[in-house]
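Lab notebook page, bench 4
Experiment: in silico fold of construct C2
Operator: M.H.
Input chain length: 319 residues
Purpose: comparison with the prior construct
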Amino acid sequence: MKRSKTQAERLLAFDQLLKNNQYPNCTSFAADWEVSTKTAQRDIDFLRDRMHAPVEYDALHRGYHYTEPTFMLPAVQMNEGELAALLMGSKMLEAFQGTPMADKLTAVFNKLSALLPDNITVRPEELFTHFSFSAPPAMPISSNVWKNVVQGLETQRMLEIKYRNWKGEATHRVAPIHLANLQGDWYLFVQFEGFDNFRQIALSRIQSIKLLQKKSDIKGAFNAKKELADTFSRFAGENKPFRVTVQFDTEIADSVLERQWHPKQEVKIQKDGRVEISFDTKGDLEIKRWIMAFGRHAKVKSPTWLKEQIRDEAKKMLE
């Protein structure tokens, strides 16, 4: 079987053989990992000299063993490519500042960084001159809201929330069902007390929250995969999906084709260079905003009611 050639995995495997008192040696280990005996010897030397492992050769068993059975590897081993992935991952956390998870994820990255050995030579300040990340910041969520939502989900208990929307603030009792991150913002799927349908609310709009002792009595079955299947942007509410077809003129056809707007979109390229994109979705408000962002370059082919809504919106803008 083809083995990985990374030193990190070889050291972990050699460490496990030593802990199991299997007395590996350079020849057997090199054959098992398909490396040269010189490479195997360098691994053993590194383990003993750089990681201060109590490794000694036992002539009777013709192999190495730990003189201190309780020894544990003191560091996580990474090559420069793996470290680059770690550093870029930590850089991407900047896009999620303002959420309670950001601090916890940052702490995890800091712990991993503290475990790295000295033989890693890539310099983070040099790495970040070659990579950058840009994303809209997530709406801030209070730690109290986050904590109570997570506890409500884990213990299946009702929540009493004061929620703000365009109508104002109102107090509701809801059963938390599923937490989802959509386009960088956190949304909670709930069932309002006394109702049997599922609703989507934004965590950032919860003004206050209280975890109740009452158990959630959820009516019906919630399928997160199904609910999110027709999501466009951030909306994945209870509306039934509808089929939308938009035609883009040749002036912006190339830029429209450069990205995927919906996971199940269908694309038709016409002879004159215009492009038609169709998909099933829900949430007419976000669809309207998306189409109107293209101005005169986008034309709604269907449904008719969406075409009329955009026409009415354009008239009101002129007024």
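Observations: The mean pLDDT is 81. DSSP finds eleven helices and eleven strands in the chain.
Next step: discuss at group meeting.
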